[in-house]
Give the backbone structure.
Amino acid sequence: MMKTPMLAYRLPYGKFLRREWETLEFMHEAGINLVCISPMNTVNSVGDPYSDYPLIWKWDEVYDFGVLDCQIEEVLAHHPAARFLVTVDLNTPLWLARRLSLDSFYRLTDCILHPQWKPLTEAYLTAFLEHCERKWGDRIGGYIIACGRTLEWIECRNFEPSVRKNIAFRSWCRERNLPQYPVPLIDGAEKRLHESVYDPAKEAEFPAWLRFLNELTADLVISFISTARKHIRPSVKIGIFYAHIRNIGIGGQLDCERVLDTAPPDFVIGAACNRPADIGCDSGYIGVTEMLRRRNIGFMFECDRITSEANLKMSEFVTLSGGIWEGWKTEA
């Protein structure tokens, strides 16, 4: 595991960021100097921008890194000693999602199979890292490589066939000398013969299809981590929200051992699993921590994410209700 315990403060997403400068100043006074920032190009699952800043990724290999510089400079104005964990958002910006008719937030494996998506995304990753290392290298402690639903490499459309996935699945079966299994549909996927377990003799197409999709995601994680290593200093850390197989299940992370062996990150973040709603609550061991320990890979909790009060009105049209939020008090 990582030799030195690490504690970082992550600034809030979206329009809430600039309301927390006082908290950031408190972190400076408390000596918590590692600050996680989120210069995003995409929107969250309720349609709000992750970032209150303009887009960085504006077109094919057209980037405005002045936006990133502005975010870093604003943090330094309130926390002069800050060093940064920088999230690199590799999800599809709206203009590209419209052009490709694909959005990696919800259809990651379809994007992987599109001939334009990965080269464009990898070019952005490379340019982003090179800019950070060149201009802010002395301030950067690490990068969080993020993609898929909620930035956690989650594939949401496991049993939704598509032309690209269907063709690739047949090729995948041929390469492994497997039968030409039919593409499983969601109706059959929900009717397992043995509760949560597929029968390998009678339902072989289901585990084969899931292995195919999870391998696609793992290949992408391996590729992006390997690319990132080439463009950062050896001392800089790479983290990912990944290996959450106890919480996410079949949603894209089941091939995590191959990722950890082939292109190991320096740390894995346990994303908050939204329960229980106590102050100080952390994300729990939703990651495969023993796998990480054996490979000397660090594990980072998200902690104190669920607070005693919050503004549940996220936007003019979205107010959270039900679930874990029922126990929150709405701020005045």
User: Anything to note?
Assistant: The mean pLDDT is 86. The first helix runs from residue 21 to 30. The chain has one domain: 8-159+214-330.
